[in-house]
Amino acid sequence: MRLPWVRASEALPDPAQALVEPNGLLCAGLDLDASRLLEAYKAGIFPWYSEGQAVLWWSPNPRMVLYCDQFRFHRSLRKRVRALSLDKAWTLHLSCDFKAVMQACAAPRRGQAGTWITAAMIAAYCSLHELGHAQSIELRYRHELKAGLYGVNIGQMFFGESMFTTLPDGSKIVLAALVALLAREGFTMIDCQQQTEHLALMGAKPIPRDRYLMQIRDLCQRPPPDWSSCELHWP
Known about the structure:
Number of helices: 7
Radius of gyration: 17 Å
Helix content: 25-40%
Shape: globular
Strand order of the largest sheet: 6-7-8-9-10-5-11
Largest sheet: 7 strands, mixed
Number of strands: 11
Strand content: 25-35%
Distance between the termini: 47 Å
Oligomer: single chain
């Protein structure tokens, strides 16, 4: 089966057409900008490719999601958060430096040959951030970025993309802060894309793609929060 090629003037295919193996591979193309990203996320599709490849678009089945009310705030993590929150040198920030978070997520990691967060992808998501449709959560020590995550927001749906940390439990702390913020703003679900043991331990679980698509269709149409007035607190 040949992989469909999508030109800039064409719409992305129906996610139901995605391959079973590799799970969720839907189509390829060359364009990657804010408007294409918004089209994709509203349809339950996301880009994932390596430097030198065409832009590959995916919609896996099942889909890993984290319901905010099912997040597992483990006792050990609560103790870690409490300890950091008592030290005023540690601070949490919402979208203070979105690009820096993406660049940190793109940095080489142990056991990985490269990164899927290319320069073109950073530029596209930064444009999306400028439009108010992408946010980052940042953990800083004396203003130095130590952990963070970023994702796409449409309506009352948040699509998680990537996270990084330079300290134990850092990525769990920023995820907990995100869940707390989203819950206060009426969000119910975070898209986690791929199944991982790390996310499963935090309460994420796979659901069928058709159910996922039905849920995000509703959530993306709901009124979004005013992100400029959202406050980030220790979870």
